Amino acid sequence: MCTLGLVAVAGLALYATRNPCIPQGIHPVEDFELQRYLGKWYEVARIDHSFEKGLQRTQAEYSLLPNGRIQVVNRGYDPKRGEWKISFGKAMPTIRPDVAALKVSFFGPFYGGYNVVALDDKYRWAMVIGDKLDYFWILSRTPTLPDGVQERLLHHAQQLGVDLTKVLWVHQDGVNPTGSYL
What we know:
Order of helices and strands: HHEEEEEEEEHE
Shape: globular
Strand content: 35-45%
Number of helices: 3
Mean pLDDT: 86
Radius of gyration: 17 Å
Number of domains: 1
Low-confidence stretches: 2-17, 175-182
Largest sheet: 8 strands, antiparallel, barrel
Strand order of the largest sheet: 1-2-3-4-5-6-7-8
CATH topology: Lipocalin
CATH superfamily: Calycin beta-barrel core domain
């Protein structure tokens, strides 16, 4: 019995630390420069999930830690509670540092996929798909996308198989409820 328990614990540990799958047909950006990707991003669109449900003015900030991992700080405003929700996580590349395929964890040793599939050459906007097509985000360095980008990204997402009827446009005006800038 003890051996079976050890095998189960070892299996769980291997599962928890594995690299998440990249959905079929999804190709993370190559020639990715992590240093340019670091910093603050506004979430302008997403497919809603329980961990973000109802949040507005959502943002993500990425910074490099001394050990080479990436610190992730996600925040969003919950208008029903009148407060900010903040989550801290970690990320790391899964293939090579120059490929925009990462794994991200907010819940202990369990990781989810984070694949940048479209990225502006000046790193002003990005489109991200997780380890399933229903984990989807459009990010921007500003609270709104430049003209024409929304349509291009949605067309690309549709070609990849993302269900556009599930995409939610995030209330993102760059000003918090107290009127001060973020």
